[in-house]
Amino acid sequence: MNRPPSPNSGPDAGAAASGILSWPSPQTWTELLALLQEEAGDRAFLERAVELWRQVQGADAAALYLDKGGFLEREAAAGQPLPEALESSSVPSRLGSLPLPGGRLLFAPQTLAVADGPSASVAGAIVALLASALKGCRLKQELKEQQFQVNYRVVELEALYDVGLAVTATLDLDRLSEEILLRAASLLDARRGALYILENGRYRCTQTFGGEAADSFSVDNPELRLFLTSGGPAPENLLPGARYLLGTPVEVENGPRGLLAVGDKESRRGVGPFPASDRRTLALFANQAAIALENARLHLEALDKERLEREMQLAAEIQRRILPKGAPQIPGLQLIGWNRPARQVGGDYYDLFHMGEDRVGLVVGDVSGKGIPAALMVSTLHSALRLLLDHNELGPSLLELLNRHIMDSSTPNKFITMVLGELDLRTGVLRYLNAGHNPGLVLRRDGTVEEMGAGGLPLGLLPAARFQAADIFLGPGDLLCLYSDGITECESLDGGEFGMGRLIDLLREHRDKPLTEVLETIQVVTGRFSEGLPQGDDQTVVMARRE
Amino acid sequence: MTESLNVTVDRRDGLAVIYTEGYINNQGGEEIARAAYDLLDGGYRVLLLNLGGTKIVNSIGISILIEIIEKMIEVGGKMGFCCLTPTIEKTFQIMGLAQYAPIYPDESTAVTQLRP
Q: Which chain B residues contact residue A182 at CB under 8 A?
């Protein structure tokens, strides 16, 4: 420790008179020995004794050093300044050196004025006292260091424990990564460090400490693998500039999650390599860190899933609002519509609406794909169709406008099939357009069936697509059925398809029953057909019957 | 994150506050010791170490802080810490620093308690 030179008194007057350079008086000895008795008088004793020795020996400077593993640290000094600390092997040649158990007395000049005689004997006595005191100092120092090490082991254990708990304190992966790296560097007295997380076959650097680190490494990097498993040389760019590196994988049960590297172990004299015990400590620490990181990752995944679930619920609610809540009540017409998406939200669409006093509109559409992207297209289709119907007659030009709008607002691989009809309740004529959708069916009262064939390509495929309108008569008791391919293409366990034939048979068999019963039968029969399988596609049915 | 430590000193009436920012390691500890011993030489006997800007301390840094505490005791002075992260506070408790240099939650409390 850095100590200022003791401002001790000069040579005793009696000694100077006797011709000796300095001769301690009995009072001086008494004071010196009293310091030795004091609980906290060690340092004062050493400084006083060194000063006395310097005076007795006529030295310009003297300092007592404790040897700490080849490194001399000054404990007490007198006279002109001497180094605070130095390597025991590099004591300057201008200094004299007197070895003591556990330390040294350094002095200048190298050749002392008093080499023998009474003063030398007195000096020898002081040196003996110094040696004894130095031994005491050394023992106290060792005890202090041992206590320090014991306490620091507790700090290490606490750190291991705390990192395991850290996931409860923070769910932020970045903050957790920083915490892990800081604690690792702190525990191992490292000057540098980096934490990497494994992503898509590469270790990606997420935190650095004390300097730069390589951005990423392949998990198959042979040099890195050797470094982590058997302590081979680290890849040059892992912690550029660091001389001594230590690394360990961060692993969970099902494999690596990352790696933790630290560099340049500090001591009071600079930096050096990490001892073997540090490798074990780092590995233990990495185990705890891995659990914390994995827990945080899983927690974030769960949060993401929960958020996605909430978004899906919201989307489903929006879609439910898009679809009609019920069929409009129209005298002389039975009308029903039903939709069941395969997922929370779907790509099927239907609508039933008044088009003036004596006309009713019917739509069934199917957006390619499923889930959120398809649901967004359904929303686009609904808005655009309603707007266009407000200002356009139902006919080819309406579908052409709708087609261009769908082209502009969808990705290239998206398209919509749709059948759109307008039933004149006075005449029973249904004018319809079919853009690539499954043909609608009309079950006549006599059991015959007419298909409403396609009149154009699906919407969103070609900008210049043309469409054709057609008319079909719906007589009293005739049953109109529009549906999506989720009905006719639903599959059975053995891979068979429900098909349009089964649908026609079913409609024919139940064509006189109330529409709610016909619909229920379709649901039950298709459900039974696909029993044991999840619903493969969105299902939609719209039916109308003139009374 | 940087490894270097910035030390600033605020000298007040009868008390000096040392602010740290960065890693208290060997170099950082020596910076603090230098500032502390300069203050002692300047006659200050009450020191407060505000570690609000420090997230990490290693064993070398701790040993230097212990030396500063010992020096303060030797000259009959007082020393305290404030604004420690929970991790550093726990470390100081375990290492025994808090026994000789009290830890305060904030600077104003520390100044009130330490001021002669």
A: 1, 55-56
The minimal CB distance from B37 to the residues A2, A267, A268 is found for: A2
> The domain containing residue A131 runs over which residues?
13-142
DSSP codes joined into one string, A257-292: EEEEEEEEEEETTEEEPPPHHHHHHHHHHHHHHHHH
Query: What phi, psi does B94 have (nearest 5°)?
Result: -65, -40
Q: How many residues does chain B have?
A: 116
Strands B15-22 and A440-443, sheet pairing: unpaired
Same domain, A458 and A339: yes
Tally of structural domains, chain A:
3
Contact yes or no for A207 and B1 at CB 8 A? yes
| pLDDT mean over B12-25 | 93
Query: Please, which residues have CB within 8 angstroms of residue A29's CB and are 6 or more apart in sequence?
Result: none
How much is the average pLDDT of B1-20?
87
Beta-bridge mates of residue B7: B20
Specify the CATH number for the domain of residue B80: 3.30.750.24
Q: Do A353 and A501 have their domain in common?
A: yes
| Closest-CA residue of chain A to B92 | A155
Residue A119 in any domain: the answer is yes
**A182/B63 CB distance under 8 A:** no
Residue A431 CB: number of other CB atoms within 10 A? 17
Question: Residue A6 above 80 pLDDT?
Answer: no
Within 73-112 of A, beta carbons closer than 8 Å to B belong to: none
Q: Does the beta carbon of B94 lie under 8 angstroms from any beta carbon of chain A? A: yes
Residue B1's pLDDT is what?
Answer: 52
pLDDT above 70 (res A69): yes
List of chain B residues whose C-beta atoms are within 8 Å of the C-beta of residue A6: none
Q: What are the chain A neighbours of B69 within 8 Å (beta carbons)?
A: none
Please tell me whether residues A266 and A345 are part of one structural domain. Answer: no
The 10s digit of each residue's pLDDT in A96-141 is 999 998 899 999 998 876 666 777 788 888 888 888 888 888 888 8
Query: Which CATH number goes with the domain that contains A89?
Result: 3.30.450.40
The shortest C-alpha distance from A35 to chain B (Å) reads 15
Nearest residue in A to B54, CA atom = A182
Tell me: do A237 and A345 sit in the same domain.
no
Domain span at B87: 5-97
Q: Do B43 and B50 meet the contact criterion of CB atoms below 8 Å apart? A: no
Query: Is the residue at A158 inside a domain?
Result: no
Number of domains making up chain B: 1
Minimum distance, in Å, between the CA of residue A69 and any CA atom of chain B:
16
CB contact under 8 A, A189 and B58: yes
Task: Give the whole-angstrom CA distance, residue B8 versus residue B35.
Answer: 8
0.80 exceeded by pTM: no
Q: Which pLDDT tens digit goes with each residue over B50-98?
A: 999 999 999 999 999 999 999 999 899 999 999 999 999 999 999 999 9
**How many percent of chain A have pLDDT more than 70?**
93
Q: How far apart, in whole angstroms, are the C-alpha atoms of residue A541 and residue B14?
A: 88
- Within 8 A of A43 by CB-CB distance, chain B residues are 74
| Cβ-contact B4, B27 below 8 angstroms | yes
Mean of per-residue pLDDT scores for chain A: 87
Least CB–CB distance from B67: residue in A1, A186, A270: A1
pLDDT > 80? residue A547: yes
* A365 and A501 inside one domain: yes
Which ipTM was obtained for this model? 0.87
